[in-house]
Protein: Nickel/cobalt efflux system
Organism: Pontibaca salina
Amino acid sequence: MRGNYLLPGGGVFSTGLALTAFTLGLRHGVDPDHIAAIDNVTRRNP
């Protein structure tokens, strides 16, 4: 069963593209500047 966002007939391409996007997003999300920003936001006093 294919999702609404996948191109018809592009199973391998769509899967590879999704996996690449997920991996690059994960790398981007764990950059030191993002970790520091999240740390600063969670440590702020109300």
Notes: The chain has two helices and no strands. The mean pLDDT is 80. The two ends are 47 Å apart (CA to CA). The CA atoms of residues 6 and 14 lie 6 Å apart.
